[in-house]
Write a structure and sequence with these properties.
A hairpin with a 2-residue loop joins strand 5 and strand 6. By secondary structure, the protein is an alpha/beta fold. The protein has one domain: Uracil-DNA glycosylase-like domain (Uracil-DNA Glycosylase, subunit E). The chain has a six-stranded mixed β-sheet with strand order 1-3-2-4-6-5, sandwiched between helices.
């Protein structure tokens, strides 16, 4: 005597009918399909069969730890740039046009740590572009510095805290800043400047403690074992010309520190 028609045998018969071309089931009474469920009975293993092994859950790597390992493995600035551009855990690079690593002259006494690239910088592939770049050169020239000189004593090196433009030029996510921070620390270590200038509100919030740029600007502090001076960015000065007086005072403080041998 045949056993009762269970779920799996009924499913096999239904699959066979579909293969034969049946595409609609006709019943003696109407069928309310809205009340049907797709629940299947749990399959019980045959007597004596070994239980299925539990699925293995692979822990995702810590992006900060991966970044730290990649940064520490970089022996020079060129290899650091390659490691940063190939870093797969930060999605910002997928939406940006350019990878903006640095500008100016490596080996300079002064290193500017800048806000992330915005639209103009993303298009130009440089840390500062457009009118902000013109203003920055004028600011530096006023105290005898330049981003475009072979003289190590007068040159300036610069790098943004993030090498990619934020979508819509929005404020960076703290997770992205923390993820890429090991690369920035290694960047400073390899560039080995005497003085750091933290230029811009995003850079200041990401790197300095004790408040925002308006509170900290003009006050010397320590960052990565080096004297650091937070000052307004050229983009801010273009939008707020009244702040140029404070920026000039900060530039004079930077010149005095350089003249004193940092």
């Amino acid at each position: 005597m045949e056993s009762a028609l269970d779920y799996w045998r009924a499913r096999a018969l239904l699959d066979w009918q579909i293969e034969m071309g049946a595409d609609e089931a006709m019943l003696d009474a109407g069928l309310d399909r809205y009340t049907l469920t797709d629940a299947r009975p749990a399959m019980t293993p045959a007597p004596g069969a070994a239980a299925a092994p539990a699925p293995v859950r692979l822990e995702e790597p810590d992006p900060v730890a991966v970044a730290r390992a990649a940064a520490e493995a970089a022996a020079d600035l060129d290899s650091l740039a390659v490691a940063m551009e190939r870093f797969e855990h930060c999605d910002l690079g997928r939406g940006a046009r350019s990878f903006v690593f640095s500008g100016g002259r490596p080996g300079a006494r002064v290193m500017l740590l800048l806000d992330p690239p915005r639209r103009e910088e993303d298009r130009a592939g440089t840390p500062v572009a457009g009118g902000a770049a013109v203003l920055l050169e004028r600011m530096l020239a006023a105290i005898g510095l330049s981003t475009d000189t072979p003289d190590a004593e007068r040159s300036v090196y610069m790098a943004p805290v993030l090498p990619w433009r934020m979508p819509g030029d929005r404020a960076p996510d703290p997770k992205d800043l923390a993820m890429m921070r090991p690369f920035l620390d290694r960047h400073v270590e390899l560039a080995d400047p005497d003085i750091l200038v933290v230029m811009g509100s995003v850079a200041c919030s990401a790197l300095m403690k004790g408040g925002g740029l308006h509170r900290l600007r003009g006050r010397w502090d320590k960052l990565l074992g080096r004297p650091a001076l937070p000052i307004f960015s050229p983009a801010h000065l273009m939008a707020t010309p009244a702040a140029k007086r404070e920026a000039w005072a900060d530039l004079l403080a930077l010149r005095a520190r350089l003249e004193d041998g940092a």
